[in-house]
C-alpha cells in the first residue's frame, strides 16, 4: 500500500497493538478541521474543604493547606509538599470564590463550583452551564466523546447535593459515571455493526416520541408545559448525542494499554480506585477520545463511597475529619487526607508531563489545564476556595507561583480555626475576587471567544 493511501481509519483497523493511540502526524491530512494540537481541560473537585488552623495553633506550621511566602518564594506545608517535584508546573490560588455562594453553607455549595450560578442554600433552585460543558461544546466536535463526567458517588445526586460537577446549557446536572469498567467500556468498547443497529433503534424511538409530544403540548396547563419543555430540552440533548454517535460509529475505537487499570476496583480499595479513575482520564486524553473531563471526589454533607477514600491513609470517614479538627491530631488528620488527595493529583499530572505530545511541541501537560479544588475552605466556609492548577504552558499559563487575590486576607486567617457554623454565618470582612474571572481566562486560552462567565466579566490578572 502506497504511503499516500494510508489513513488513520485503515491503520486502526489493521493494528492490534495494546497501546493508547494518539492522533499521529502521519494521518493529520485527513483531520483538516481539527486543531493542530489538542487543548484539554480537567477539573477535580473534593468536598469538605481543607484544614486552616490559626497561626497561634501549633498545627499551623505543618498542617495549614495554603502555602506561606510570596508569589515565587512560597513554601509548601506538609499538606502540599508532595507537589514539590512539580513546583514549576503548578499554581496555587487564594482569595477566589463565587460571590453568590459566600453566605451559603458548605454543605450546599458544590453545585456551583464550575458554574458560578446563584443556586442559594434553600428555596427555588436554578443552575447554569458549567465551564467544562462550555468548552465541550467547542471542542467536542473533534472527539468521539464531548466530555468525560466522573465521580466517586455517581449519578447526579440532588439539588445542592450534586454528585456531578457538570451541568448542561439548561443548568441540568449531567450524570457522572463512577464504576471503572463502565467508564472503560463507554470509552473503548462501543463500535461496529451492533452499535449502528442500536443507534437506528434509538433514533426511531426518539422520532416517535418527538412527534407525540408536539401535539400533547397544546393540551397541557402552563405549569405542565414548563415541565414538558424541560423534558424536550433533555430530548434535544439526546438527539445531539445520537447524531454525534452516528458520525463516529464507523471509526474504530482506539486500543489502549490496560496494564495500569483495575477495572473492578471499588472505593473500599481507595488507592487502586483512585489510581484507576485517574488512569482512565489519562487514557481518554491520550487517545483523544475526549478533551474535557471532570472528577468529583464525593458529595458535600453525605455518606457514601467517597467517605471511604480517607481509609487509604488509615483514617476514618472523610466527612467526619472536618468536624474533628479540635480533637487530638485533628488538624493533622485532615491535613493528611488533603495531602493524599494532592498526591494522587500529582501522580496524574506527572504522567501527563512524562508523555510527549503527539501533535505538537512539549508534553501533554503543556496542552492541558488541570484544576484541583473545593468550594469550601475552613469548615464548610464558602470563601477563599483552595485551588491548584497545573499545566497549560503552551496556552500561556505561567506556573511555579502562589497567586493571592483580593485584600484583607493575605495570611488566609479569615475564617481559620473554626469548627462551627459561626463561620459561614459571620459577616465577610475581607474582599475576594470572582472565581469566574479565572474561568473566563481559561476559556479564552482554550480558544473559546467569551468575555464573561458565571456572572463575572473580564479575565483574571497575572494568570
CATH topology of the largest domain, anyone? Alkaline Phosphatase, subunit A
Helix proportion: 25-40%
Assembly classification? single chain
What is the number of independent domains?
A: 2
Structural class: alpha/beta
- Mean pLDDT across the residues is 84
CATH architecture of the largest domain: 3-Layer(aba) Sandwich
Low-confidence stretches: 1-33
How would you write the strand order of the largest sheet? 4-7-1-8-9-2-10
| Rg (CA only) | 23 Å
Using DSSP, what is the number of strands?
Answer: 13
Count of helices? 11
Order of helices and strands: HEHEEHEEEHHHHEHHEEEHEHEE
Strand content: 5-15%
**First and last CA, distance:** 49 Å
Q: What's the CATH C level of the largest domain?
A: Alpha Beta
Major sheet: 7 strands, mixed
Shape: globular
Overview of this structure, please?
The protein is α/β, with parallel strands linked by helices and 463 residues long. The protein folds into two domains: 41-182 and 291-457, Alkaline Phosphatase, subunit A (3-Layer(aba) Sandwich), CATH 3.40.720; 192-250. The chain is built from eleven helices and 13 strands. Strands 4-7-1-8-9-2-10 form a seven-stranded mixed beta sheet, sandwiched between helices. The protein has a two-stranded parallel sheet with strand order 3-11. A two-stranded antiparallel sheet has the order 5-6. β12 and β13 form a beta hairpin. α4 (180-188) packs parallel to α7, α5 (193-216) runs antiparallel to α6 (222-248) and α7 packs parallel to α9. The chain is globular. The termini are far apart. This is DUF1552 domain-containing protein. Pfam families: HXXSHH (PF07586). It comes from Roseimaritima ulvae.
